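Margin note from the TA: students keep mixing up input and output lines. Inputs are the sequences; the output is the structure of the whole complex. Example:
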Amino acid sequence: MTGAWVGWLPWAVAAWLFGVGLYGIISSRHYVHLIGCLTIVQSATYVLLLSIGYRRGAGPPIFHAHPPSTPAVDPVMQVLVLTDIVVGATVTALLLVLVLQFHKRRGIVDPQQAAPLT
Amino acid sequence: MLIDILQILLAVTGTGVALTRRPVRQVIALGANGLVLALLFMALQAPDVAFAQIVVGTAALPMLFMVVLASMRMDRRREDRREGMS
Amino acid sequence: MKPRVRTALFLAAAAGAMPALVRALPHFPAFGDHPSPYADRVLASAPVDRHVQNVVTALNFDYRGFDTLGEEFILLCAVTGVTVLLRGSRGEHRSARTGQVEGRPVIPPGEAVTLIARLFGVATFVLGLSVALHATSTPGGGFQGGVLIASGFLLVFLGEGYRGWRAMMQAELMDAVEAAGALVYVGCGLVGVWQGLPYLTNTLPLGTAGSVWAGGLMPVINAGVTCAVLGGFGMLFIEFLEETRVNPDAEQDTEAPKS
């Protein structure tokens, strides 16, 4: 299936994921649901970065079984996404702990019921 | 062609995660989204990234979400019980 | 701000951005044809200059080793934040009673689950160790190996229940492993400084491509990163799973059975 539209599909998917995740965040009724939508927004950036680095007909940037001059995809983008995934999971854990503490103190789990702290 | 199918599937699962309101169900959707993301990374010739994403997106992150939900439910029941008794 | 107003504002912003996106999308560089001179340089130089076959590892720990040091710092800070917040409100004790929601029984893991978790837990540990060791030749590295071993810990929790999990995971040991990994990374940078070169210069002998010890300083940094990620995720899991136990301060108004 070739055609002109597959040239810009990754950018459209990344933009769509970002928009959908953002909509989920602003219309969320539960803090844990909000953090899940934040994970979707993060995955939009992963898709964008790796799609920038892709080259048609190229293999992975690992030359264990191929000689070092075979065409390979961009490894710099993979480095960015790799550390991002692991560190993003840890930061999401920290956010979940903040939600848990907030629930323990105030008993509220709905972001739209939480009045600003005065 | 495989990449295009996986990207459209990723858009569908991502929408599913955002539109699933109940958090316990959203955790399952998150696991499915993580799996599709890992398959897309494999199709984009990034095996290192797919390794990390499989473990983090399907095992570690849903587990963290589930534990927080269980802990919140336990606290809520204890508070209700304490209010009911006092 | 009311929810309706917020949603209306979001839809208005999306409606404003959508024509621009639709208009610009066909003019983006086509997927798969993007030229990147930096990537070409690195792909040409990493197997020759650094004697490694996994260019992603070479970038991670050598060419852009300073960025990875920053990422390690974020990992350390986030795990410290989680530990301080959770232990600060729960205390330092460990509870033997599993937390229970009213009306729900506490079911021990079934025998099939224990068997599968034991088989696959051992396999996951070995796979994680192998992936972490072969960082410079096959797809793998410190980050992937560390999270694989941490997921092996989760399998242990699934199969053995809380007692087996707690007997194996000592919080002090995980803490020490994580700190040792971070210290090894920082110390490896000082090897170059000791010889009068910039921080994190790769000065150890480079070895032959394809062997586990290729790449000079890279296997050492890789081992440090594996320990740091493994310790960090182990601490996260320990602190999170402690939250499912009954708090002894509140034990007078719950009657949870021992697990």
